[in-house]
Every structure is written in C-alpha cells, then in structure tokens.
Amino acid sequence: MTKVKEENSDSIKRNTEKIYRHILGDCLGYEQLSVDGIARNLPNIPGGAVFAMISIESTITAAVAARYREDGTDPTDTAGMPAYDKVVFSVDGKGNLSKVKLIQAGAGTHVANIQYY
Prior knowledge:
Structural class: alpha+beta
Number of domains: 1
CATH topology: Jelly Rolls
C-alpha cells in the first residue's frame, strides 16, 4: 500500500509542477504544423522553451488522429503514443522538445497546434 501511495504522490507532484510551470511561464511562441504520413520534428522551437502544449485537429474524427514519440525514433501510424483529435497533450523538457516526432495515424487532414513555454 505504501508504495502505491508514494507513486501516486510522486505523480501528483510531477503534474502539479507542470501546471505551475505552465501558469507562471510566459508563452514563448505558437505554430501550426501539418501532420501527414511522414514523421516530423517540431521545426521552430523558440530558444528557452522547455514545455509545449500540443493539440491535433483532424477533418475526420478518428479513434487516433496522430501518434508521437519523444525518444527521437520515428512513430508510425500504428506505433507511438496516441494523440486524439482536439485533446491537448504536453511535451516536457528541452531534450524531449528537440526529439519529439509526430505522424498522421487516422484519415483526414491533420494540423498540430503548438504553444511553447
């Protein structure tokens, strides 16, 4: 029981830190990126950015609109973390921002809306 409580406590602490960083940090930039069948990095990360909020918008609602990986490996339409239509996810850490890649996983036209902090 104690280990589970400690893991939950650590998870809550990490999420709280992200929220504070987001609330207290200035937005350093915004961009839109077309997401297609080729895995792509974020092309215009502002200097000093350590956090990004990303939302994928698709013209067709799919179970999974896109996929991403933060380890520098190309995701595929079936492998990688799922990114759902109009659901915000975050990428935390300067190294992860430089390595994250996105790819289209569902039908339709996809755009990533990205805000950097």
